[in-house]
Amino acid sequence: MFTRIWKDKNIRYYLLGGGASKLGDVLSGMAFLFLAYDLTGSKILTTGMAIAETLPYLLFGLIGGVVADWLPKKKLLIVLDMVRIPLIFSIVCLFYLELLSYSYLLVVSFLIQCIGCFFNPTHRTVLPTITVEEERTEVNSLNDTLTRGVTVISPFLSVLLLNSYGVIHFFTFDALTYSISAYCISKVDIKERKQVVNKSVKNVFSSIAEFASWAKAHTSVRKLFLFTFITVFFNTWVWEVGLLLALSEMSSESEELYSIIQGVFGGVVILTNIILPFFLKKMTLQIHLVGTMIWGIGITYYGLFYGINHFFIGSAIVAIGLPIAGLSRIYLIQSLVPEDKMGRAFSSNAVLLYFSNTISLGIYGFLVSFISIQKLMLFSGILIIITSIIGLLLSMYRTKLRWRFIINFSK
Questions:
Q1: Is the pLDDT score of 406 beyond 50?
Q2: Intrachain domains 1-188 and 199-403 with the same fold
Q3: pLDDT: is 241 or 97 the higher one?
Q4: What is the dihedral of CA 107, 110, 114, 115, to 10 degrees?
Q5: Neighbours of 206 (CB within 10 A)
Q6: CB–CB of 81/185 below 8 Å?
Q7: What UniProt keywords are attached to this protein's entry (predicted)?
Q8: Residue range 330-348: mean pLDDT, rounded
Q9: How is the chain split among helix, strand and coil, in percent rounded to 5?
Q10: Cα separation, 88 vs 213, whole angstroms
């Protein structure tokens, strides 16, 4: 099945370009933090660098979706990649000229992420134009497998680069991946419909408002965004902070254990991605909710059994639910949203995720000062499960009412 998909030139180049670009992004993301700390020795300023990598999506994410819907996708993607090459490579040049400063690093990090606000939704909208609906589950699965695989191997590659060339050449490698991405995109035949749009600053905001009204009127899309926001909110702190803090209470090797858990998590996600298309060709909101429920069961398992060995098991359960929820979300956006609105749909989804991440870290960071980590984990998992069950029951009830209407109408 995957062999047949891979033989398609458009899909192959799309996946290879996206995988290369993702690998470069992961490495440069680490390098910005490493260099920020090397230059300043300040934890606060290093945190500022991390904020510079997320803030652009909250500021410009929605605008990026509008641009993705307006402009020719292939040309836009290639131009954005070509702009990123000299921008990222300038860090290497200034480093060797001994002119690199924290402020310049901060500006470049911010600009690179701003470009990502336009690149990412545009890249996402390409896939429906080069596939038919029956292929999308498989292609999305391959894409996510490649992305997860890159995330898993990036720590090993980073160690190799650090030992051989130094952290500065993370950026050299990133510039190379942008070149590969641009080349691969140039090989993809993208079928696009020409749009006649009055492109102005005023229309940017009216386009965002138009999509918001459209999404509000479409129940499935509205519910998808809502359930995604809730699940990510209850998951983010538990995975990114809570698990590490819990491990630090239990072992002096918390960082090593956390890295191993991430490796197990990534491996199970990849395995789930590979297996899933053999059982599911089409995704529904109900499948998405089943995925979030499994996700919630994994987090609940953390809280119930609260121990190092059980964290591995809980992470494996989450790693089954997460790709089911994630792939179904992407599939539903690709299937339910018209082509001329898809960029805004993906950018809205990304902004919701970043916003949910941000408030989750802030609220839980406050709650953990007087509520135990175990209780927060248990509370989070149970609420995800309850939300998913309510969503499934409401969905089943609506389906039952629809069938009753059809039967009564046909009498």
A1: no
A2: yes
A3: 97
A4: 70
A5: 13
A6: yes
A7: Cell membrane, Membrane, Transmembrane, Transmembrane helix, Transport
A8: 87
A9: 90, 0, 10
A10: 38
Q: How many CB atoms lie within 10 A of CB 160?
A: 10
Residue 216 DSSP label:
H
Domain 1-188 bears CATH identifier 1.20.1250.20:
yes
Placement of tokens 């899933």 in the chain: 276
Cβ–Cβ < 8 Å for 80, 115: yes
In terms of phi and psi (left: phi > 0; alpha: psi -120 to 50; beta: otherwise), the region of 139 is alpha
Region 22-32 average pLDDT: 81
Distance CA 280, CA 307 (A): 34
**Mean pLDDT, residues 22-39 taken together:** 82
Residue 186 CB neighbours (<10 A): 14
DSSP letter for each residue of 257-318: HHHHHHHHHHHHHHHHHHHHHHH-SS--HHHHHHHHHHHHHHHHHHHHH-SHHHHHHHHHHH
User: Residue 329 is which amino acid?
Assistant: R
How high does pLDDT run on average in the chain? 84
Specify the pLDDT at position 84. 93
Helix (H, G, I), strand (E, B) or coil at 374: helix
pLDDT for residue 409 is more than 60: no
In tens, the pLDDT along 148-206 reads 777 677 767 777 777 778 888 889 988 999 999 999 999 998 877 666 666 676 788 88
CA dihedral of 233, 235, 241, 247, whole degrees rounded to 10:
160
Contact 224, 285 (CB under 8 A): yes
The residue type found at 71 is: L
- Per-residue H/E/C for 219-260: HHHHHHHHHHHHHHHHHHHHHHHHHHHHHHHHCCCHHHHHHH
To which CATH superfamily is domain 199-403 assigned? MFS general substrate transporter like domains (1.20.1250.20)
Residue type, 241: V
- Given a contact cutoff of 8 angstroms between Cβ atoms, the answer to whether 284 and 398 are in contact is no
Q: Give pTM, 2 decimals.
A: 0.77
Taking the domains of the chain in order of start, what are their residue ranges? Answer: 1-188, 199-403
